[in-house]
Write a sequence for this structure.
């Protein structure tokens, strides 16, 4: 599946068949600092991601 | 497949919120956010139904979320956007702010620092030797105060959320800066030369305000300010989120515990021993003869314009140039 990451914006390919929570753990991203969208819709940590999904990992922390 | 249920309606959840030990669908996430904002406004006597409100708008998730929430709750709120001249970051943030206002037929006032005062934040930082976030914060505070008083607004609203406030509290506590701690309140009452200022998002984390924007279809600026890259505030947030991951609810307990139990003990330190008079140049309250804003204007407006990348440290410049490549 395609995974879009931000700051800097980049796209990586990750094998599907895992939950949102596991994806964040594997990318070493803190759950409190990120939201995940699957095919444009917000999904919780136990949502399952499949090979055909387009996933966006959106950081939510701002520094100002 | 799937997936946890909303605590309220048992429909499919869109977000898990460990600090509430619950999951929520889009509709009940919005209900939660509205209730948290209403509670903050009520508990701290932030706003009255008839207030004329000026929202400090940056184009980021928090300021657009708070403006949207206030409009939803029936308040009369205009926005004020300040063009800070931080390269394409500022250009883009202004577009998000204007698009949000246009879609909802809300009034957005815009002040451009370079057009009106002859400087921008990178130039102010270089010319005065202030770190960029200091030059920026000083300029914004002055201009929001000024615009609110000149425009006859009753109160200035900012989008500071629970993470922002907990991070500032953490920093002030690490330094035991008692005077800053005493003033770190969700409401600053009006005083001579200062409008009332309130923070209705102090009961929402930034993950929640971002989720509000997503489920409401609000487009906001995702890029981080290049000048904030790697600043101390972000380090404090990361530290607190590491604690939060182990012990959900810690940030809220830290901040709200301070407000309920510690801030009252510091109340007599607020404004203690500070004598203010009017700035010789603009009339704003100041401890000196000329206020810090007018001193920045005097120094920065006569300086050659400085591009943003010149005032970034090495890591921030690398991140900024990567961001520029994305855009091109």
């Amino acid at each position: 599946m395609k995974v879009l990451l931000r700051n800097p914006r980049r796209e990586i390919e990750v094998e599907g068949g895992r939950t949102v929570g596991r994806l964040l753990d594997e990318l070493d991203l803190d759950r409190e600092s990120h939201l995940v969208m699957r095919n444009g819709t917000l999904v919780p940590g136990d949502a399952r991601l499949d090979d055909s999904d387009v996933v966006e990992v959106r950081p939510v922390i701002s520094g100002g | 497949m799937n997936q946890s249920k909303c605590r309220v309606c048992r429909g499919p959840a869109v977000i898990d919120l460990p600090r509430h030990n619950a999951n929520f669908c889009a509709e009940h996430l919005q209900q939660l956010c509205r209730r948290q904002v209403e509670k903050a406004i009520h508990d701290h006597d932030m706003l009255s139904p008839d207030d004329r409100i000026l929202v400090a708008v940056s184009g980021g998730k928090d300021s657009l979320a708070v403006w949207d929430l206030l409009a939803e709750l029936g308040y009369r709120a205009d926005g004020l956007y300040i063009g800070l001249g931080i390269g394409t970051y500022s250009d883009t943030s202004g577009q998000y702010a204007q698009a949000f206002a246009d879609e909802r037929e809300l009034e957005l006032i815009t002040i451009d620092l370079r057009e009106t005062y002859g400087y921008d934040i990178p130039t102010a930082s270089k010319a005065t030797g202030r770190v960029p976030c200091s030059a920026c914060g000083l300029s914004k505070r002055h201009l929001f105060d000024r615009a609110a008083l000149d425009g006859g607004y009753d109160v200035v609203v900012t989008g500071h959320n629970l993470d922002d406030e907990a991070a500032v509290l953490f920093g002030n506590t690490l330094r035991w800066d008692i005077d800053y701690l005493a003033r770190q309140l969700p409401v600053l009452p009006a005083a001579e030369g200062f409008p009332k200022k309130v923070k209705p998002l102090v009961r929402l984390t930034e993950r929640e305000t971002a989720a509000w924007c997503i489920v409401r279809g609000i487009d906001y600026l995702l890029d981080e300010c290049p000048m904030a890259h790697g600043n101390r505030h972000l380090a404090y947030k990361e530290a607190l989120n590491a604690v939060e991951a182990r012990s959900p609810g810690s940030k809220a307990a830290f901040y709200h515990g301070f407000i309920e139990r510690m801030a009252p003990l510091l109340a007599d330190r607020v404004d203690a021993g500070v004598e203010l008079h009017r700035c010789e140049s603009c009339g704003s309250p100041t401890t000196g003869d000329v206020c810090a804003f007018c001193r920045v204007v005097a120094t920065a407006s006569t300086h050659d314009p400085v591009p943003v990348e010149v005032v970034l440290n090495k890591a921030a410049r690398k991140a900024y140039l990567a961001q520029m490549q994305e855009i091109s």
